[in-house]
Amino acid sequence: MDMLKRLPGSVRAAPGLEWALWRRLPALLLWGTLLPALIVLARHLIGEVGTTAQAERDLMVWTYKMIGLVVLHWSLLLTLAVGCFIVRVMKGPAYVADAYEMEELDPDPSPLPLPLPLSGR
């Protein structure tokens, strides 16, 4: 059974910005993750020998901020990917759903009753 049947005569819309963004998503994900990770690694390796407790706390807080930046970047890219996917599907060919036959059809539907007028109290 073929679930998706193309509508005869349907055409696809021309690709736009969504395709350019879709192709760049893997590189954006890689660089957006790698750069903060490399900066954190470099800062940990270059760290001062015999640092104070306050300097270590500051480094840890800064590391957590970079982790938060990476997670924010991932969520923004996920949102962008979902948007690109939706636009790609909407620009694609039209599909026809299977017909749904009504079991019972009321030939003379009764009209809805009119609302009663409000009294002037």
Report on the architecture of this protein.
Keywords: Membrane, Transmembrane, Transmembrane helix. The structure is a single chain. This protein has a domain at 16-93. 56% of the residues lie in helices and 3% in strands. It is built from 2 helices and 2 strands, in the order E-H-H-E. The longest helix has 39 residues, at 53-91. It has helices at 17-45, 53-91, and strands spanning 5-6, 95-96. It has 121 residues and is mainly alpha-helical.
Largest sheet: 2 strands, antiparallel
Give the N-terminus to C-terminus distance in angstroms: 64 Å
Number of contiguous helices: 2
Based on CA inertia axes, which overall geometry fits?
A: elongated
Q: Encode the helix/strand succession as letters.
A: EHHE
Judged by helices, strands and strand pairing, the structural class is mainly alpha
Helix content: 55-70%
How would you write the strand order of the largest sheet?
1-2
Count of DSSP strands: 2
Q: Which oligomeric form is depicted?
A: single chain
What value does the Rg take, in angstroms?
29 Å
Q: Which runs of at least 5 residues are low in confidence (pLDDT < 50)? A: none
The average pLDDT is 84
Strand content: under 5%
